[in-house]
Amino acid sequence: MIDTIFIGMSGLSSYSRGLKVISNNVTNLNTPGFKSSQLQFADLFYQGSQQGLGEGRTGHGVGTFGTNLNFKTGDIRSTGNELDLAVDGQGFFVLKDAKDKLIYTKAGQFDFNADGVLVSRNGGERVMALAEGGRLDEIRLDGKRTNPPQASTKLVLSGNLNPSSTTYTMENVGVFDSAGQQHQLKLTFTKEANNTSDPITWTVVATEGSATVASGSFKIKDLKPMAGADTIDLKFTPAGAVPSTAVLTLGPDVRGDVLGATSSLSISQKDGFASGSLIKRTFDADGKLVLTYSNGQTDKPFQLALAEVSDTRELVQEGANQFLIKNQNALSYHIAGNGKDRIIGGSVEVSNVDLSQEFSDLILNQRGYQASSQMVSTANEMIQQLFDMKGHR
């Protein structure tokens, strides 16, 4: 009967641990990236004859091993925060703490700190990108807060240059120099006098205010731009900046038809832009950082590193939704895309706790604890009866 008390106590102890695991799961129901765990129960050693003779083999209660983590992907929940990220797949975000220790997490709640480094909002660990050669790098905004200007190199015209008219004017043709300054040009087309047969020559003068920027001529032959006579160079020499040239071109869509009373040219292609400041930071589905600037340009300088673990039993919970790995051979790095993983911006992966399963396990643990308690009480009563029998002898 003394053994029965010890067996019952092993049940009380084990079911108490089980209740602790369940309570931890349930309380982390809304914790982003949390992975639920389950306590493993096992019967204790046996004594007695292996052949089942005499008393036979009797057990000594129940014990517990460690907990098994459930790495099933949790639901993806939208947050509206552009730097909240979720991994649609088995990959883990890679973080590095202040001691340069690598940590792995599913909780993608990130932000840029005062130094322009992408960090975890929870603990300030740096978020890693995967660079060339498999190198892990920090994601920093150094040198990325502004976008340098680019001089215009081409302006391509489309439309109709009607030979029945003698002049045509295009106003407010924007061209950027190498300093990022925009020049608003006026293009004046004048058909060469008495030019009624192929090729038809048009003199073009580009002016900015009262100053002439460039002049030249275009030729139209067989109703189409004539090769070798379809471009004019627009040169700019801004103070303190590199000179630049933008080529004004009659595109393949330009015609010289007699359609209507006037010409109808427009700019179909052009490049160049002013300098821009950073206005938006997001991540795309491949985990690339997308920087958007006020001049309409974008840049993708970094791509998130994702960790893949071949055996999740090598992961150790560290708290704060983070994991360490025991065996580096079970770890490899990759990037999202190519059908492997997908990054969902403005969202987080929530806890994978199944509340209905936890409540079912809670009832079983509660009943197990009650039964173990009843066994201890019964054995105690039986021992008390023995004491009473001896006392009345």
Automatic annotation (TrEMBL):
UniProt keyword annotation of Cell membrane present:
no
- Keywords of the record: Bacterial flagellum, Cell projection, Cilium, Flagellum
An example Gene Ontology cellular component term from the record?
bacterial-type flagellum basal body
Residue ranges constituting the Flagellar basal body rod protein N-terminal domain according to the UniProt record: 7-35
Q: Which InterPro entries match?
A: Falgellar_hook_FlgE_sf (IPR037058), Flag_bb_rod_N (IPR001444), Flagellar_FlgE/F/G (IPR020013), Flg_bb/hook_C_dom (IPR010930), FlgE/F/G-like (IPR037925), FlgE_D2 (IPR011491), LlgE_F_G-like_D1 (IPR053967)
Coiled coil stretches, renumbered: none
Q: Which residues cross the membrane?
A: none
GO terms of biological process kind: bacterial-type flagellum-dependent swarming motility
Domain Flagellar basal-body/hook protein C-terminal, which positions?
346-387
Annotated localization: Bacterial flagellum basal body
Domain named Flagellar hook protein FlgE/F/G-like D1 is located at 86-123
Q: Does the keyword Metal-binding apply?
A: no
Q: Which residues form the Flagellar hook protein FlgE D2 domain?
A: 165-306
What's the main place this protein lives?
other
Q: Which Pfam families does the record associate with it?
A: Flg_bb_rod (PF00460), Flg_bbr_C (PF06429), FlgE_D2 (PF07559), LlgE_F_G_D1 (PF22692)
| Family (UniProt) | Belongs to the flagella basal body rod proteins family.
Q: Give the matching PANTHER family.
A: FLAGELLAR BASAL-BODY ROD PROTEIN FLGG, FLAGELLAR PROTEIN
Which protein is depicted?
A: Flagellar hook protein FlgE
Which species does the entry assign this protein to?
Chitinivorax tropicus
Which classification does the entry list for the species? Bacteria, Pseudomonadati, Pseudomonadota, Betaproteobacteria, Chitinivorax
